[in-house]
Amino acid sequence: VTGQLDVGELVDRARAGQPRAVSRLLSLVEDDHPRLREVVRALTPYTGNAQVIGLTGPPGVGKSTSTSMLLAALRAQGKRVGVLAIDPSSPFTGSLATRGHLGGLSWSTPQSVRVLDAAGFDVVLIETVGVGQSEVDIVRLADTVLVLLAPGAGDGVQAVKAGVLEIADVFVVNKADRDGAETTVRELKNMIALSRRELRGRRWRQPIVRTVAAQNQGAEEVLQALDEHRAWLESEGELASRRQIRARTEVEAIALRELRSRLADLGGGEALEMLTKRVVDRELDPFTAADELIRTLRR
Amino acid sequence: VTGQLDVGELVDRARAGQPRAVSRLLSLVEDDHPRLREVVRALTPYTGNAQVIGLTGPPGVGKSTSTSMLLAALRAQGKRVGVLAIDPSSPFTGSLATRGHLGGLSWSTPQSVRVLDAAGFDVVLIETVGVGQSEVDIVRLADTVLVLLAPGAGDGVQAVKAGVLEIADVFVVNKADRDGAETTVRELKNMIALSRRELRGRRWRQPIVRTVAAQNQGAEEVLQALDEHRAWLESEGELASRRQIRARTEVEAIALRELRSRLADLGGGEALEMLTKRVVDRELDPFTAADELIRTLRR
Lengths: 299, 299
Prior knowledge:
- The longest helix of chain A is centred in the last third of the chain and has 28 residues, at 238-265.
- Chain A is 52% helix and 10% strand.
- The first copy, chain A, starts with 6 loop residues before the first helix and ends with a helix.
- The first copy, chain A, has 13 helices and 6 strands.
- Chain A is an alpha/beta fold.
- At the A-B interface, helix 3, helix 7, helix 8, helix 11 and helix 12 of A face helix 3, helix 7, helix 8, helix 11 and helix 12 of B.
């Protein structure tokens, strides 16, 4: 089957709106297919148009209900929307090497975004299942990051780590009809005031939007906040800067992954094992062993 | 102060049992001190003696209470025990580069283990706060991994991802006096049977120990399971194999970290930015950019 794969044709079909072609491309990039490079190269010229939105938050705040609500609202505006649900903790049985959590970057997420972008989706929604470091690293690749909270979910605002506050462009307090919602909003305002997040030039003031996603309330307000953030990104040159960061993270991750693979292969895979043996035997410290490994690589 | 740091003397004082010297060494390796290499080199000859135990499990199972119980029980046996509490999700405000989550390996944990090992601690207990991929990667560096569960904590056994089952050497069902404890044990037995974990040669059968850590019940049984696993590790050559893997992971992480730093520095830091710019402009795909970056490195 691999031999019969016509990457150019597949990309053409995806761009023509064929869902099966899009799915095929997504699984090709997720599976780290031997022809991944070729696929990415074929997609590249058609990318750069999609608005990439990240959505994260602690368990129990209603992330998937909110994703559904936004999806419907964006589609009602006539937009094509693709959703990527990311759970970095799920591939527990998979190997780290192939997932390539290099520097916290999930290997396949930027490639999956690229597939949907090239296929002509106007909006790519990245929804994370949890809100650990890996999720933070993933959603920070988005143009705009929505952080969801809800009254009574986990330990509330206190449970939101500082890094999550920093990556948020828009806060959404979901389940806003419940007791405690206004407490959540007030605590959030206090934390925002404390975090004094400075962006280059004019500071973006993170808005707080109230929603009841299960009753489809607040979608318009979220879309408005997204539009305002998008306009701010463009007016401040921040969008280009974010995309530069996203591309740098990706190039760096690919290069490191390639270097890791070369390190493992050195001397037919023997170099790393022999150096490691000397570390176990305490003949070498691990830094000297790493230096030696790099010297072998550069020969 | 850095200029006055006498690494050899500090290591001598730590080996003589001075807690302040141990703390100082721990913060030196955690802070990625400029003289980290020197510190690690000075520690290396004295390492390899400590028994390294990892302890992980979902939130709410009583990990810190269990750590306290084990600590007391091991000390009652006359052992010196050091505890490292690891929360990979906590440095949300820190930079990824310095934490160096390369391939999921927390940068400082193996160095911290090395400090306690060289300082003459008989046992090093690594306790993780959560149980995500990073935590799994950390505890798998241990000689023996304890996985804690409890009835009613989270979604019980179902919530335990396959990878956690795979890394467990000993299961501890804590809060065993509660309703549902036997259900947890039974579910666990079923999952173990399903996972059919094969280790090289004879298979280690993961025991299930019941504890009530808050009432100090079951410590002896856990220690016995630890001893049995230790004996098995040694009889099967598995201990040497685990330590080889641990050292390999560490050498590889150090080498990749060094390479990452060199990639970022190439051309006075300009090479990566310029290649990235061409990716943003869709002149280059990220794989070709990464190839180019590696070629620059090897020049």
